[in-house]
UniProtKB/TrEMBL annotation:
UniProt keywords, alphabetically: Signal
Residues of the signal peptide: 1-33
Protein's UniProt name: Transmembrane protein
Organism annotation: Thauera terpenica 58Eu
Signal among keywords: yes
Domain of life of the source: Bacteria
InterPro entries: YfiR/HmsC-like
One Pfam assignment: DUF4154
Length: 188
């Protein structure tokens, strides 16, 4: 026996209710919860480009087998995208990705991406080797207020970044004026 046909306006009303309730649900979520799926790729591209706009002290060039040390601390979805940077060239130097080094063995880290703000890496790095010329980057909220150098953020659906220039200068890192102009906020 065939089912009775419901009027088409019933389906239109149901569709309207679903669309409105979905929109209201998404509107109440924090911005990070509706972060675009490709943002991890964009953040990894930002990390790669930071190498081009930062000058390390001559004596501080890392001693990795390839030339540039990118240390990834913690385990987050961005890790896979950062691992893809291994072997890429920045000028004549090649990126070597190092996962979860200890702060005491952070000398090969030219850039440390800290995925977990609860990690003691940043605090321990400052304690074990104060003034170490390691550019610290994270997408964790409040990172530059905790002593990090560059904080990646999602603003209006786009990846932006804030810079703590005081901390970078204390580590003898020179950030290019172009990078500072592109920053959403610079703490001086």
């Amino acid at each position: 026996m065939p089912l009775p046909r419901l009027p088409s306006r019933y389906f239109a009303r149901a569709r309207f209710v679903v669309v409105v309730s979905t929109g209201l649900t998404l509107a109440t979520l924090p911005a990070s919860a509706v972060e675009p799926p490709e943002s991890a790729q964009v953040k990894a591209a930002f990390v790669f480009n930071f190498f081009k706009f930062v000058e390390w002290p001559a004596q501080a060039k890392s001693q990795t087998p390839r030339g540039i040390g990118l240390c990834v601390i913690g385990n987050r979805p961005l890790d896979g995208n950062l691992s893809l940077l291994a072997g890429r060239k920045v000028g004549t130097r090649v990126i070597d990705v190092i996962h979860n080094p200890s702060p005491a063995s952070a000398s090969p880290c030219d850039l440390a991406y800290i995925a977990d703000l609860d990690s003691s890496f940043l605090r321990d790095l400052r304690r074990v080797a104060p003034g170490t010329p390691t550019l610290t980057v994270s997408d964790q909220r409040g990172f530059i207020d905790e002593g990090g150098m560059i904080e990646l953020r999602i603003i209006d659906g786009k990846v932006r970044f804030d810079i703590n220039l005081l901390v970078a200068r204390a580590a003898n890192l020179q950030l290019s004026s172009q990078l500072l102009k592109l920053a959403n906020r610079v703490v001086q």
